Amino acid sequence: MMNIRDYLFINKAKNSNKIKILEILGFESNSYITQSPETIKYRSQEIENNQVTLDEELYESRILDLEIDSNNYDESETNLEATPTRTFEPIKITSQMKKIWIDIERRRMWLVPVGLFIVTILLIATATSIFVNNRNQEIEVINLYETLSEDSNKLIKEIEDIIFISTDSFYSKYDVSNSSAQLQLIESTIMEYKRNLVNRVDIDNVSEVNANLDQIFIVINDLDDLITYRILASEILIYNDIFNNINENTDIDNLSNILSEISAKSKLNYNNLPTIKEFEKHSLLLEVTLESAEDLHGSLIASLRNNEIEVANSLIIAIKMNKDIEVNEFNNSLLKIKNTKTDLINKITILP
User: Fold this and answer.
1) N or C: which end of the chain has fewer CB within 10 A?
2) Separation CA 153–CA 190 (nearest Å)
3) Where are the domains of the chain?
4) For residues 301, 307, 308 and 310, what is the CA-based torsion angle, rounded to 10 degrees?
5) What pTM, to 2 d.p., does this model score?
6) pLDDT tens digits, 116-148
């Protein structure tokens, strides 16, 4: 389409040059251009109208641009005043940098609360863990104390059986040995209970419990001494059947050696006897019995060497009576200590 400038240029040119101009402008060379006065006048008027219209449009467009620039300036001033100084608005950077900056700003808004939340959770978890561990330790200690108390009370009840065994006139070495081992177990358990007593905040009457424990230890120590006394006394002046079939054919030297060994062993055991209040009388009697037994042994050997069988038999009866007197006193002492320790154990209260 031909614009106004091309049209005016063609009208001013000569007719011979118009065809060339048309060819240059891309129109067919055989185009015919009419140029009547009416057409020229019409075209001139149209060109003037178009020119005026273009000038008006250009003017209005210029005024609109100025107004837009003024509004943009006012908005920029308003944004600068409204924007805090601590907020940085990136200008003239790429969209990627803007996006990164926006992400950073967004993260800054929730990073501090999230951090505080995480720290709070960690503190709560740590405090809860410490509380639970301490509580579990307290429960374990309480269970330990309860178990120790139950075991101690059960073992204390067994002391009555040990008293019966250790004071029975029928001596069983097996039973007495077991009783001794059981006493050691009871003593170690009660000692453990007493060591933990200072940490027992659930016990108010600690002094009464200590007094009760002291009585238990007295009974245990006395029974332990009693068992030791019985074991040693069971091997004092034990003749068995050596006096059977004493006659003129008896091996006097062999019998003399046996009696010497019995006297020596009896004296050794006597010297190792523990001191027990209930056995003081028996201990004194036993000393006299050993001296008498040694004299009787010598007399028996002498009578046998002199072939005095009747005298020897009389001396054997005296030796046995000497032993029987000691055994009777020993049984009396057993009865005394049995009654004493039974009364004492009955006064012992249950451990808390």
Assistant:
1) N
2) 9
3) 4-80, 159-346
4) 100
5) 0.62
6) 878 888 888 888 888 888 877 777 767 777 888
